[in-house]
Amino acid sequence: MSDHQVAPGSPGDALKTPGEGVPAVRPTGSSHLGIRQAQLSDIDALVRIENNAFETDRLSARRFRYLLSKANALVLVATEDDDVALGYVMVLFNRGTSLARLYSIAVDAPVRGRGVGELLLQAAEAGARERDTACVRLEVRADDPSAQSFYRSHGYRQFAMHHHYYEDRADALRMEKSLAPRPDPGLARVPYYAQSLDFTCGPAAALMAMHALDPHIAVDQVGELRLWRESTTVFMTSGVGGCSPEGLALAIHRRGFHVEVFLSDTGTLFVDSVRSESKRAVIRLVQNDFRKQLAEAGIATVFRPLSVETMREKVEAGGIPLVLISSYRFDREKQPHWVVVTGFDEKYVYLHDPNVDEDLDKTATDCMQIPVLQRDFAKMARYGRSQLKAAVIVGKGRG
Question: Distance between CA atoms of 106 and 111, rounded to whole angstroms?
């Protein structure tokens, strides 16, 4: 689903201070328009607005009901004296991160031109700030210059393009607005690549890091699978094996890059989550072989956790960290998962998540340069009962 279009608001619209989790706003020049939290009783009005505003990509009553009752979302409506919804805005929040997505915004035809769209957008941003959101992102049709101008006039900038995004195959511009006071201007240096298979997060993360350091590195599924075959543990919690930090480090090193490995545990990684003793034996054998190869290649493994502060120093020195996290904070699934740290500011760690989980209504927009509070990232960057912490720092040259 995409961000929808909205008629630009009037420049006289004003924003008041939010209260009790719902932004209280009222446009200048109107004593009737206001904003409140959407309710299930608004669904009929929301569907009417939706159907009148859009010809494709429409939200159904069932979808509105889910988004109002179960999703991690903020849905606000604009009303007048009769309290009937005249427009709505919907913001989705990325679980475990400080990223929000402006999912949809629409205004009823009779009140267009009165600043309702601007009022809703301001209220949505105010609500996002109350949730400590660092960045709001959206998609808008590439063939709608009016909607693009509306967003640009409110501080949004284009950062990517998604071809054939809509139901009618129209392209979408991806736009974002930082709500953090000092966004890091260097965060765009790592290109994004989504893993193509459920078990290739490590290779996808490695490809992003290597391509950022050397643009001649091809980023495609062939390279992704080659890296996986070289670094897999053979078995994992279920199904095929994931990639160990040692295996990833070796595979990246073979391609001419400098690597550093940080581990909090000297034991066998991931073995606690595998029930079969025969499979555990294979994982131990693979890890011992990886560590032998690391020693032969002169790659030191540092057996201590990589702190957020040290990680930041590595990034400032030109390194790109691949960090093992628990996916629980993203999707409530307790699985080991690799992400790429792309930068820092005073408050947030920014990362690329290679997993675009469509079951959670995510797009690549939601997975790029994700802001995570530093204190939350420190909790996220550990896995399993042993609280394993693992990271691979990728740098230029083998030096």
Answer: 11
